[in-house]
Amino acid sequence: MSLSFASPTPSASAARRSLSARQLAVLRAVGHGLNDQEIASALGLSGDTVTRHVRAVLDVLGLRDRCAAIVYAFDHGIVTPRHRAAPARDTVAPRPAEVTGPRLELGLLGPLHARSGSTTLDLGPLRQQAVLAALASRCDHTVSSATLLADVWGTEPPLGNVVPVYVYRLRRGLRCGNGAAESVIARDRCGYRLLGADVRLDTTRLDAAVAEAGAALRAGDLATAVAEYSRALGLFRGEPLAGLPGPFAELERFRLTERRGALSQRKAELQLSLGRQAEAVDELQSSAALFPHSEPVVTLLMRALHEQGRSADALAAFTRLRRALATDLGVEPGTAVRRLHRAILRDGARPAGPTRCGVR
């Protein structure tokens, strides 16, 4: 256990006067979110002793429950938000000096992460991160505590309403800029709201790139549209919201993953229309690995391979699709991909024309 609970900070003087040194150490551990068993291990106490100390802390400070103790620990400086330096391998470039705007960056298109300047912020336990993800996905909209509770815990809520505690920690840790007093999370009587003007979201950048691609398509500039789709796809750092619990994170993860697949398909369609089969094959092979049951993706891959003279590889792609559908879903491939399969089997047959690309 790397946390130290024995030495209170100077700002905890009020609590120091009311509590014994051992009780103050227990309060700090509670503030860090540890349960009784973890506190016992960290402080070398028995579980029963920790339970008695927790009860004594609540009685002495007049606190209602453990959640109130966590808030008290933060309010009185006994526990402070923790930050860690960005890993050396992180290659995200710092924002150019001439660019103005929000200092805090939030990433949802992969494992959730937050960055302020060159510092990666510690977002706390997974359920606390899931609360932040739910707020970030509804940026600039107020979300009630009850909604956040359902988003993160579903039909199995905790015994106490810990949402205010998690939001409190996030508000303390996520500021508008270096040294700023204001949090990027606003609070009112209806709930909590992530302030979009103070945060740079990768999902917002994704929307902007897709909008630019759509504008290029409407102008007939397919090459620029391909470049913008590439920029959008480059924002994904892996599985969106990877590892976060709760029904909301699961649905959002599915939605963003499906969007990634659709963008990859659009990009490949345009590459085929431009006669860039080799680039389309690379894109589609990556997409087929991520979405092995996607018939549209495999259909495009088969066409691109066949137009390159790689009919055997195209037939192998169909075989993999049929096996995946039969094994995982118990179904056969659809009409369109089977028709293309038969066309490739016919000696010298070619697919009928390039894929039609449209704005969707």
Automatic annotation (TrEMBL):
Pfam families: BTAD, GerE, Trans_reg_C. Residues 12-77 form the HTH luxR-type domain. Residues 95-196 form the OmpR/PhoB-type domain. GO terms for molecular function: DNA binding. One of its GO terms (biological process) is regulation of DNA-templated transcription. Residues 95-196 bind DNA. Keywords: DNA-binding, Transcription, Transcription regulation. Belongs to the AfsR/DnrI/RedD regulatory family. This is Transcriptional regulator. It comes from Saccharomonospora piscinae.
